[in-house]
Amino acid sequence: MISIKNFFALLAIFILSLSIYNSKNLRLDASSDTLILKNDKTFEYFQYYNEIFPSRNFLVLAVKAKNQIDEEYIDDLNKVVKEINKISNVDSVFSILNAPILLLNNLSLIDLSQGETENINNSKYKLDSILDEFSNSPLFKDQIINSNKDLSSIIIYTKKNYEYEKIKNKRNELLKKNKDIINIDSLYRIEKEKNLNQKELLIKNVRNIINNQNNNYEYYLGGIDMIANDTISYVKNDVIIFSFAVILFIIIVLLFIYKDIKWVLIPLITSIYSVIVMIGFIGYLNLEITAISSNFISLMLILSISMNIHIINHYKINYHNSEITKKIENTFKKMFWPCFYTGLTTIIAFGSLLFSNIKPIIDFGNIMILSLIIIFLCSFSILPLIIYYFPKINKSKNFKFSILKNFYEISIKNYNKILLLNFLLFSISIFGIYNLNVENSFINYFKSNTEIYKGMKLIDTQLGGTTPLDILIKFKDNQINIKPNTNDSIDDDLGLVEDFDIGDDFFIDDNMDNVWFNNDKIRIIKDIHNYLESRKEIGKVQSLNSLIDMANQINKKDLTIFELSILYNEIPDEYKSVLIDPYLSTENNMIKISARIKDSDDIKRNNLINDISIYINNKFQNDVDFKINGLLVLYNNMLQSLFSSQIKSFGIILISIFIMFLILFKSFRLSIIGIIPNIIASTFILGLIGLLKIPLDIMTITIAAITIGIAVDNTIHYIYRIKENEETIVSSEKLIEDTHNNVGNAVLTTSLTIAFGFSVLCLSNFIPTILFGLFTALAMIIAMIGVLITLPALMIRFK
Predict the structure, then answer these.
(1) DSSP-derived secondary structure letter, 788
(2) Which residues lie closer than 8 Å to 219 by C-beta, 6 or more apart?
(3) Would you say residue 415 lies in a domain?
(4) CA 454 to CA 461: how far, in whole Å?
(5) pLDDT tens, 460-495?
(6) Which pTM was predicted?
C-alpha cells in the first residue's frame, strides 16, 4: 500500500505536469490598450472617433543620408520600397518617391482633380528643386522629409485584419453593455494572437530588408506596432535573464549561508515548483502578462525563498536527530501563523494596487496575489514533503552573521540617537515626497543604445514628433446655408466653374444651396492649427488647413469658399482618402486636427493639454464643442492618476497592516512600534525619488506599497519571536539579544537575498524596470536596518 508521503509526492508531480502543459498558453501583451485607465471615458471616445475618421496602422522607416539626399540615395530608396512592397502584409507605401510634385510644374487644381501628377521617379525637374518643394510643403514637411533634406521616411501601411477588428468591436460592445464575453473571448484571443504574429513577421521582414541595404545610410524603424513588438521582445528577454540570474544568485547566497548543497536545493526546488504552478495557472486562466507584471517570476522566486529561509532557519535551530517527524511537524505548526500573516501582509500590499485605476497595475496586483497564495501553499506542502525525504542537518555548518552583534549593541546603547536620526530621515523624506512628479518621457523608458530609443529619438526630433495628439471639433451649426456668391473673384484660369461638371452630387444635402464649407469654419480650423504649431512642444500638425494651404499655393491665391466646395467634390478618391477623410467628417459636422508631440523634450503634458483646452474654450466656446484626445491624453490620464493611486494604496496598506498587527500581537503599543520602521523605509524611498527628481512611472509607483508589504514580513517574524520568548526571558535586553541571534539571522539573510534579487532587474533594457529593481532593493536594505536597529531601539525606549 502506498504511503501518505509517496501519495503526496505523486500528487505534486501530477500538478507539476499539468502546470507545464498549461504553460504553453502564457502570453505577453504590450499593446497601447495596456496603458489605459480602467473605464476611461477618454478611451471610449478615442475608439468612437477612430471609427469616424479612418486611421491605418503603419510603420515608419526613417532613412538618413550622411550628407544630403542625392540620386544614389533615391536609387537605394527605390530598391528598399520595391522589396517592402513584396511583403504580403504590406498594403501600400508612401514616401518622397511617390509624393506628388504640385508646384514646380505649375499644376492646376483641375489637373489635380484628374489625377495628373508627377513624382521624383518620373519628373524632369532637378532633385534639389523637388526636395526644396517637399521640405517646405504643408503636407510633406516633417512628415516624409526633414527640413535639412538629409532624412526621409517611408510610411509602410499594413493590411487591415478585418476579422480581428470585427471580433474586437463586437467584444467591446459587449463590454460596454456589461454582457458576458466568455463565448467570444477565446475567439478574440486567437485572432489577437494571429494579428500580433502578423505584425511581428512584418517587422522581421522589414528589418531583414534594411539589414541587406547600403551601409552608407542609417535606417531607423519606428511606429506604435514596432514599439509594442520590441517591448514584448525586451520583456521576454528580461524574463529569461532575470529568472536565471535570480536563481544563480539564490544558489550563491544559500551556499554561503548553509554550506550544504542539500539546503540549497530544497528551498530552490520549492520556489521553482511554485513558479511553474503559477505559470500553468496563468495559462489555464488565459491571463495576459504585461511589461509590468512580467516580473512576477523573479518576484515569486525572491518571495518564496524568503519564506522558505524563515521556515528552514527555525527547523535547523530546533532540529534533533530523534523524533525527526515530530520536529518537522512542530516547525511547520509554529511557523504557520507568522508565515500566514507575512503572506497576508504581502498580499494586502499587492492587493492595494487593485484600487488603482491603471489597468496594467491592476493586472500586476491580481497576478501577485495569486502568486503569493501559491507560494504559501507550496511552502507548507512541497517544502515539508521534501524535508521529510531529506531531514538530516549538519549543525556544525550553520552560519551566523557576526554583524548582528553590532546591530544589537548599537540599538541598546544609542536608542535615543537612532530615533532622532529616524525622525530627521522621515522629515527629509516628506520633503522629497512633496517634490514627486509624473512628467516622464516614454522615449526615456528605453536605454539610449537600443534601436527603439534611437528610432524614436530621430523621428521625434527631425520628423515632427512621436506621440499623437488629436483635437476633435464639432461645429454647433447643424446645417449651414450658403448661396455661392457669383460675384466672388474666381480665377478664370482655374477653370473650376467652366470645366467642372458639378452634376447632382455637389457635396450637398440634396440641395444645391447647402454646402459644408464657410469662412467661419475655415477661420476656426486655421486658428487652432496655427496655435498648435506655435507651441514648442508640438512638431508636425495636420488638418484640413494643411490641404487648404497647399491648394492656395497651387492656385497662387486663396480659394473662395465656392471653389473649396467644388475642389472637395472633384478631388480623386485616392487623394481624398489620404488628405481629407482622416480630418473631415461632413456627416458628423466634425473635423480632426492631429499633432505629434516632441516626447524627448522636457514637456509638461498636463499643462499642454490644459493650455490647449483653455485657448479653444476662451476663443470659440460659442462656435464649437471640442475634445482633446489621442495617445498623449490616454497616457497623460494614466500618469496623472499615478500619484493619487499611490496615496490611496499606501493609506490602505498602512491601515490594513496595523489592524493585522493588533490581531496578531494583541497590543496597540507594539503594533505602533512594529509599523514605524516600515513607514520609514517606504517614505524614504519615495522621498529619495522625489529629491533625485526622478518622475514616477507605471512601475516605480508600486515601490512604496510593495516595500512595506514585503519588509513588514521580517517585522512580524521578529516581534512574533519576541512574544514567544517574553514569558521565559525577563530582561528586555536579553530578549532582544536572543531574538537577534536566531530570527535576526533569517531577517538579514532574507533581506539581502531579496535586495540582491531585485537588483538583478538592472539588467533590463526597460528603464522603469531598472529603477524598480534599484529602489526596491535599497528599500529592502533600509527596512532590514529598521527591523534590526530601529525596532529594538523603539522597544527599549518605550519598554
Answers:
(1) I
(2) 61, 62, 63, 64, 210, 213
(3) yes
(4) 11
(5) 888 888 889 999 999 986 544 434 443 443 333 333
(6) 0.79
Distance of CA 455 to the CA centre of its chain: 18
3-class state of residue 251 by DSSP: helix
Assess whether 44 and 159 both reside in one domain: yes
In this structure, the dihedral spanned by the alpha carbons of residues 468, 295, 716 and 788, taken in order and rounded to 10 degrees, is: -90
Cβ 400 vs Cβ 654: under 8 Å: no
Nearest CA among 373, 349, 345, 344 for reference residue 361:
349
Alpha-carbon distance 141 to 598, whole Å?
Answer: 15
386 and 250 together in one domain: yes
Residue 495: inside a domain:
yes
Q: Based on the fold, state whether residues 568 and 644 are members of the same structural domain.
A: no
Which three three-digit cell numbers place residue 674?
512594529
Q: Is 603 left (phi over 0), alpha (psi -120 to 50) or beta?
A: beta
Of the residues 153, 187, 222, which one is the last residue of a structural domain?
A: 222
Amino acid 108: pLDDT: 72
- Residue numbers of the domain that contains 678: 4-25+229-393+404-439+636-797
Strand partners, 584: 591
Last residue of a domain, one of 170, 198, 222: 222
Residue with cell 499633432: 595
pLDDT in tens, 732-752: 777 777 877 778 877 888 888
Torsion sign (Cα): 328, 329, 332, 335: negative
118 falls within a domain = no
Statement to judge: residues 763 and 666 lie in one domain: yes
CB neighbours of residue 723 within 10 Å:
15
Query: Are 403 and 747 within 8 A, CB to CB?
Result: no
Tens digit of pLDDT for each residue in 342-396?
Answer: 888 888 888 888 877 777 788 888 999 999 999 999 999 999 999 888 887 765 5
In a domain, 108, yes or no: no
Contacts of 493 (CB under 8 A, 6+ apart): 108
Question: Do 594 and 698 belong together in one domain?
Answer: no
Question: Whole-angstrom Cα distance, residue 220 to residue 459?
Answer: 9
What 8-state DSSP symbol labels residue 442? S
Q: Pick the residue with more confidence: 505 or 529?
A: 529
φ and ψ of 573, to 5 deg: -60, -35
Does the pLDDT at position 580 exceed 50? Answer: yes
Half-sphere exposure of 193 (CA within 13 A, CB side): 12
Same domain, 432 and 484: no
Q: How many domains does the chain have?
A: 3
Within this chain, do residues 581 and 549 fall inside the same structural domain, yes or no?
Answer: yes
Compute the distance between CA of residue 284 and CA of residue 429 in angstroms, rounded to an integer: 43
**Helices (runs of H) and strands (runs of E) counted in the chain:** 28, 11
Chain-centroid distance of CA 490 in Å reads 54
Helices of type H across 108-161: 109-113, 127-136
Q: Look up residue 726 and give its three cell numbers.
A: 517574553
Radius of gyration (C-alpha) of the chain in whole angstroms: 33
Strand order in the sheet with 58-64: 90-94, 151-158, 58-64, 218-222
Q: Which of 607, 584, 604 is nearest to 594 (CA)?
A: 584
Check if the beta carbon of residue 309 is closer than 8 Å to that of residue 714: no
- CB-CB neighbours of 175 under 10 Å: 11
The C-alpha angle with vertex 193 and arms to 190 and 196, in degrees rounded to 5, equals 150
- Neighbouring residues of 232: CB distance < 8 A, sequence distance ≥ 6: 28, 29, 30
Same domain as 691, residue 765: yes
What CATH number did the domain enclosing 374 receive?
1.20.1640.10
**Alpha carbon 448 to its chain's center:** 18
| Residue matched to cell numbers 469654419 | 521
* Nearest to 690, CA basis, from 343, 348, 431: 431
Distance of CA 293 to the CA centre of its chain: 10
